[in-house]
Hints:
This protein is of the alpha/beta class. The two termini are 13 Å apart. 26% of the residues lie in helices and 27% in strands. The mean pLDDT is 96. Helix 2 (101-117) runs parallel beside helix 3 and helix 5 (203-212) packs parallel to helix 6 (233-240). It is built from ten helices and 22 strands. The protein folds into two domains: 2-53 and 363-383, Urease, subunit C, domain 1; 56-348, Alpha-Beta Barrel (TIM Barrel), CATH 3.20.20. 54% of the residues are buried. Strand 17 and strand 18 (294-299) form a beta hairpin.
Amino acid sequence: MIIDNVKVYTEEKTFVKGGIMLDGDKIQRVYAEEEKTQFGEKEVLDGEGAYAIPGLIDLHFHGCKGDDFCDGNEEAIERIAQYEASIGVTAIAPATMTLPVEELKQILSVAAKYKKNGTSPKAADLVGINMEGPFISKVKKGAQDERNIIPCNVEIAGQFLEASDGLVKFIGIAPEDNEDYLKFIEEMKEKVNISLAHTNADYDTAKKAFDAGANHAVHLYNAMPAFNHRAPGVVGAVYDGKHVMAEIICDGIHIHPAMVRATFEMMGADRMILISDSMRATGMPDGQYTLGGLDVKVVGKRATLVSDGAIAGSATNLADCMRTVVKEMQIPLETAIACATINPAKSLGIDDQYGSIKAGKKADIVLLKDNLDLQAVIKDGVRL
Length: 384
């Protein structure tokens, strides 16, 4: 297939008028408009001037369309993956909740089996798992069930990696609640990315964790101490830990637009990862749903716990979060695309195949109209 007459998003994070030649499920080459040649008998998709961007990558979300990753069955994962691909998210790393250890191991083993059986043509690739619990803080538990929170444990973490057959890419911890957190990081950092997640850590503790090798921050600002001029907390430690990548939820509910703009300026766009943190209500009508076994009420974009009104994930998919950050938060489109494609690909360690439009990489392309509405999704070289 040849995708012609598009504005191609390049690895330089700029747009070039031209097209993309595909060879099966791989990108063969990108050409500028002036380099166009005769296409011969090849199938040509006229992009009609659309933006051509890499398939999006969501490395932190829980579910959609009535299903949750922690439902623990392959059929649910498949439905989730098909919905995500249909909206332009072509690679996924779903998140677990804080559940009993044995239940988590079962969920991870089901995901490993799903991965081994192979992704269907219309589904997003399962490229990882983001473990948001159970090694978190009761003080900052958010929508997690504190009955299942436990101290971080190397042996249990190893069991998670084994059960998932290596699919687990992130394990979150709250260092302030774990005396041996430095030892945990030291022993696990070469096997998995260590995140600070649902943590009440002060600046010094968070900084020690990052200096020891933790390299990721789960949904910055949410479920962590406020960023204060005398007590900068986790956010300040993320800033000073220049190797740390930070997730951010830009659904218009979790974080004020001014704070989003300030954060991009402060951290630098290369360290920011757009996530949806979406739960099973995403793509569904308003109503009552569950997240991690807890009841959640959803009205519009807002999802809150029935018990205490705490924000409980989001009801917005990643593609709409990207639109929101551009249209309502004034982040440049070129920046927003990188934060939903190449940045998560690098964080997951899959940027050799995903995250940008380059010869040799997977032919996962999304076409967007000028108003950023979806025009087409090409997955593995085939239009969905």
